[in-house]
Design brief:
heterodimer, A: 352 residues, alpha+beta, two-stranded antiparallel sheet, B: 227 residues, alpha/beta, Rossmann fold, 10 strands, transport (chain A), transmembrane helix (chain A), transmembrane (chain A), membrane (chain A)
């Protein structure tokens, strides 16, 4: 470590550039993984907040809550416990005369069931009358506030915002929580339809109706429109970035090692064991990667703090740990490639 | 009776290349270095002086013959043991590039301590050695801030710092003026005489002749004792 540290201290510009390169790579990987996780989270925030284990849908709805509809004759055969809740979903455009339109997802609830009871508000109260809704905090970015009356799609009915809730997004759109009768109005459905589906906290819940099927939450989420494709795109971007980083870091460390061969030859001539030189090279790589990573984390934290609230960025410690270990391993592998060169250093070259 | 031989080389041949490109650089060399003596090996460029030095120091093995350092047969021990022998018994003074560029003069010595896990000289002893070589003021300088002669003197000091039994020097005075040649020559001779070390110098520099106990000449791979 002594030689490694002394060299970095003496060659500040050269090693500063390498640390800068690792900083930029790690910054890019952190930001990309933050955006990927943030976006993925916005697909499922509301579902996650419900603490659901399974979703009961019409088996011909292709695992889509929006496409599923449960009739009264079906729900009459079901036995709902405290762990089940009806949900009606409909894509809407919310509008108010003085504010921008917001594309949102309407979620109709029976407020006496567990989702309605569990819902945590950041301000206001839960609906107590007809035509009252609770909306996601995302509406605040378009300056909506408590007491505003909004309309949905081309319907003439107005709805009053009586509460705000946090982290309530589905399909990257903010959620508007209302009641199931409003959902029927938006879908232009008669009273014979009860909901889109049933959300259950019981993974083994059996609907007892042939036409209905129980899906695990993971299977349901993976079928959300664009969710898997988006996650796969980000995963591949990050994976390719890691591979390219490995090549770039390895090339830099290889060139650095080649430049040091004459010094290593002198040290070998004096009897300094190869293992000292090898451990020096690996230690130096670790110092550089640690330095770059630490600065990358700092820059990422600063960026996340300065980004507008609308940017979907979120950090997940296990993902960050995997990315960090990945970059660290990349650096070690990069440092191990020129080890063969060090072991082959010929001390005679500095004399003969 | 104690064996005073530090290096013994018997029937040493060294050949490079194969078939038609085969060149024999050293032919049937017989050489012995003893404690308390300074040996000078002279010869024109390409005569095989440096090859002789690398074989004597265990940096490469001869094609034929036997090398013994302090009674240890170099050709019969593994690389790790040869490294340890060089680190503990031999001090090399090389022509160039022999200082670590990112360590100050002081750190060059401390690095030796770190590698060997022991402090070889007190600060006063180190300063006295640097004083002898006229480089005390350079203690906090980096090699890039030194002239060729200063670099060479620091390299000499570093080779002597761990108090090796044998010093192998390759053109140690190449970059020095006559005054400094005398200083280095006297220093090497004193090391041999006062500290009972074995000094072998490979050089073109005839100004060092006056300090040597034995002078050998290598010509076309053959070694003979010169007058």
């Amino acid at each position: 470590m002594y030689l490694a540290w002394k060299e970095i201290k003496h060659e500040k510009l050269r090693y500063g550039l390498i640390i800068g390169m690792i900083l930029l790579i790690s910054y890019l990987v952190y930001i990309l993984s933050g955006l990927a996780f943030g976006l993925a989270q916005q697909n499922t925030e509301a579902i996650d907040s419900w603490g659901a284990q399974s979703v009961i849908l019409d088996k011909d709805a292709n695992t889509s809550l929006q496409q599923s509809m449960l009739t009264k004759s079906q729900t009459d055969k079901m036995t709902l416990t405290k762990q089940e809740s009806y949900v009606g979903q409909s894509a809407i455009v919310a509008k108010e005369a003085n504010h921008a339109k917001v594309s949102a997802q309407f979620i109709g609830l029976d407020w006496d069931q567990f989702i309605g009871k569990k819902l945590v508000l950041t301000s206001g109260h839960k609906p107590t009358k007809a035509n009252q809704v609770v909306v996601d905090d995302g509406f605040k970015t378009s300056n909506y506030k408590l007491g505003d009356t909004i309309k949905f799609n081309s319907n003439a009915d107005t709805y009053k915002i009586v509460g705000f809730t946090h982290n309530a997004k589905i399909d990257i759109a903010p959620v508007v929580y209302g009641d199931l009768s409003t959902w029927r109005t938006l879908k232009k459905l008669p009273d014979t339809f009860v909901a889109s589906g049933v959300i259950s906290q019981n993974a083994q819940y059996k609907p007892g109706v042939d036409q209905l099927k129980n899906y695990s939450v993971a299977a349901f989420i993976n079928k959300l429109p664009g969710y898997s494709a988006q996650n796969m795109t980000f995963t591949f971007m990050i994976a390719f970035l890691m591979i390219i980083s490995l090549v770039v870091i390895a090339v830099f460390l290889y060139i650095l090692t080649i430049q040091k061969i004459p010094n290593y030859a002198v040290l070998r001539a004096q009897g300094v064991p190869s293992r000292v030189l090898v451990s020096n090279t690996i230690n130096q790589a670790l110092l550089l990667v640690f330095g770059g990573l630490a600065l990358g984390v700092g820059l990422t934290a600063l960026t996340a703090a300065l980004l507008p609230a609308g940017v979907p960025i979120a950090f997940n410690w296990p993902i960050l740990a995997v990315v960090t270990v990945g970059i660290l391993l990349t650096g070690v592998i990069g440092a191990l490639i020129p080890v063969k060169l060090i072991l082959k250093v010929d001390p005679v070259s500095v004399i003969a | 009776m104690e064996n005073t031989n530090t290096i013994e080389m018997h029937h040493i041949d060294k050949t490079f290349g194969h078939d038609t490109s085969k060149i024999q650089v050293l032919k049937d060399i017989e050489f012995t270095a003893q404690r308390g003596e300074m040996s000078l090996v002279i010869g024109p460029s390409g005569s095989g002086k440096s090859t002789f030095l690398t074989i004597a120091g265990g940096l490469q093995t001869p094609t034929a013959g036997e090398v013994r350092v302090e009674d240890t047969p170099l050709t019969a021990i593994p690389v790790k043991k040869r490294d340890a022998l060089r680190l503990n018994k031999i001090g090399f003074i090389l022509q160039a590039y022999n200082l670590v560029p990112f360590l100050t003069v002081r750190e060059q010595f401390r690095f030796v301590d770190r590698i060997k896990g022991a402090t070889h000289m007190t600060e006063d002893e180190l300063m006295a050695l640097l004083d002898d070589l006229g480089i005390r003021d350079l203690i906090n300088k980096y090699p890039s801030e030194l002239s060729g002669g200063q670099t060479q003197r620091v390299a000499i000091a570093r080779a002597l710092y761990p108090n090796p039994e044998i010093v192998l020097a390759d053109e140690p005075t190449a970059a020095l003026d006559s005054e400094r040649v005398t200083v280095v020559g006297e220093l090497l001779r004193d090391l041999a005489k006062k500290h009972n070390k074995s000094i072998i110098v490979v050089t073109h520099d005839m100004r060092l002749k006056q300090f040597a106990d034995h002078i050998y000449e290598i010509l076309d791979g053959n070694m003979r004792q010169a007058s």
